[in-house]
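STRUCTURE REQUEST FORM
Protein name: DDE Tnp4 domain-containing protein
Source organism: Parnassius mnemosyne
Requested output: structure tokens
Priority: standard
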Amino acid sequence: MKEPSTEEWMEIARGFEKYTNFPNCIGAVDGKHIRIIKPLDSGSMFYNYKHFFSTVLLAVCNANYCFICIDVGACGKSNDSTIFKNSTFFKKLTEKSLNIPGPKPVSEIRTTRLPHVIVGDEAFSLSENIMRPYCGKNITKEKRIFNYRLSRARRYIECYFGILVNKWRIFHKPLNVHIEFAQNIIKACCVLYNYVRLRDGYRYEDILFETALDGLSTTTIRPGVRSRNTRDIFADYFMKEGRLPWQDKMI
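Status: completed
Returned output:
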């Protein structure tokens, strides 16, 4: 999977804005536990919080149900935020070496320049280029609207995993091979998935398939002030000029 150019990132952002009404979004990220038979002499390193052995597939996708990048091979026992922060993608993201476009306004009315972001769930910590939902049950309407709008963009990665498992049903049972071979199988399936997706497209029914893969555990790392302010600006935009007619009915 080649690294996107600045123009390709902008094209991904246009896709998310068109299909999910989330501006400046350049991807959706999530990680799933891939079941494996316990590797030899591995102790409890691959034993996860769901009480089975696994290796982690971390992925970022676009609004066309295709992979942008993947990270394969983290031990199931590893902490969710640690897996992401140890990935090559995150290191390049923090080093600003991924050709990601600079901040830009999300509307003609709102002149504040906001960074391009990747959306994820509670398993990922909030940062300059990573948006996660607001936590808690008793949150304001504005925050609940933001969470709904973020989930509309994030569902693409959930649908992707569903399509992947439905097409390659080897993931329906634990991979009973050496751990390095298991990782190669996962990588091969991901590359083949992109190839098939671009060649044959997809059926709407495919995206309704619920994956049997387990997600990562959540984290409670406190975000920085700048990241919280960016999220608050997005939330305010979704309540005002970026409001959708039906969003109030969805919370």
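Reviewer notes: The helical segments are 6-20, 80-85, 88-94, 141-167, 179-200, 225-239. The two ends are 37 Å apart (CA to CA).
Form closed.
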